[in-house]
Design brief:
Layout: H1 11-18, E1 26-32, E2 35-41, E3 45-48, E4 53-59, H2 65-68, E5 74-78, H3 84-89, E6 103-105, E7 111-113, E8 118-130, E9 133-145, E10 152-155, E11 158-161
Antiparallel strand pairs: 1-2, 1-5, 3-4, 4-9, 5-8, 6-7, 8-9, 10-11
This protein binds flavin mononucleotide (FMN).
The site of flavin mononucleotide has 17 residues, from strand 2 and strand 4.
């Protein structure tokens, strides 16, 4: 057990704390001037049914978010359990992020990853500054669900798979 009180925790401990919460991983992507841009994002969450809203938190240091922020349509693909290489590629600092990624763009410019368990085509709704991140709220305009595809699980910095309870 690790405990910290009275603000006596640094960012490393905070990262460790946040990592205890398992999440999925999304590919947050769009087409800018004909070029696929995007990033891996585990901060995806559902927000509202009416209107249909989701959110992603992006670091204020992100070089990719200012590009995605210019777009009218954005794709969110909830990655599958065999998408670890895709998640790593879409988070890479160098090289062609989409090089080994099987992706497709809609006519409206949303970019999706093939083999994902969910595609959400989204329009920008609202951005909220929050500390060293921005909360990007998006309105869903179209979706495709692939219920038989198992999602990737991100937990304590590792990519994992769902397992049935005993
Ligand atoms: C599994 C995983 C989840 C990530 N989730 C987020 C996230 O929710 N928000 C974020 O800003 N960056 C996240 N990142 C980092 C981005 O994918 C990317 O590496 C970062 O934005 C730096 O690239 P950029 O400067 O091109 O944006 C994640 C990376 C990985 C591997």
């Amino acid at each position: 057990m690790i405990t910290a009180v009275d603000d006596q925790f640094d960012q490393a401990l905070l990262r460790q704390a946040f990592g205890c919460f398992p999440s999925g991983v999304t590919a947050f992507c769009g087409l800018l001037d004909g070029v696929a841009e995007g990033m891996a994002a585990s901060s995806f969450t559902s927000v509202s049914l009416d209107p249909p809203l989701v959110s992603v938190c992006v670091a204020s240091t992100s070089a990719t978010w200012p590009k995605l922020a210019k777009l009218d349509r954005l794709g969110l693909s909830v990655l599958a359990d065999d998408h670890a290489p895709v998640a790593r590629s879409l988070a890479s600092k160098t090289g062609d992020r989409f090089g080994g990624v099987d992706w497709v763009a809609t006519e409206s410019g949303a970019v999706f990853v093939h083999g994902a368990t969910l595609w959400l085509e989204c329009a920008p709704f609202k951005c909220i500054e929050a500390g060293d991140h921005e909360i990007v709220v998006l309105q869903i305009v179209a979706l495709a669900i692939y219920p038989d595809v198992a999602p990737m699980v991100f937990h304590r910095s590792n990519f994992r798979e769902l397992a049935p309870t005993a």
